[in-house]
Amino acid sequence: VQLQASGGGLVQAGGSLRLSCSASGSTFSDYAMGWFRQAPGKEREYVACISWSGGATDYADSGKGRFVISRDNAKNTVYLQKNGLTPEDTAVYYCAAYSSSGFPHRQAYEYDYWGQGTQVTVSS
Prior knowledge:
mainly beta, four-stranded antiparallel sheet
């Protein structure tokens, strides 16, 4: 499956942004989807995960209460709605997919496919 992330940009602290990740090349609902982020000089970190049907979601502590992951299998797209952004949320955000069993997967090595990343910059 090929993944294409979009929706990043520059936003002021306290603002909101919605990232999208469109998939092609395979049956989208065969994959659970996740979002990760990587800030300069830091390791790639887990943000959120959503199950194959969208019925289950999981979040890293950093995003709980502020981020919402969702998916539209008819549109082959997963979303990450980010609210209450802070400068600490500045990073390149990646979407990823896995087809193995088990939910959620919080480690990058558990994912099979990755999008190219979209930059999110939050100004103070």
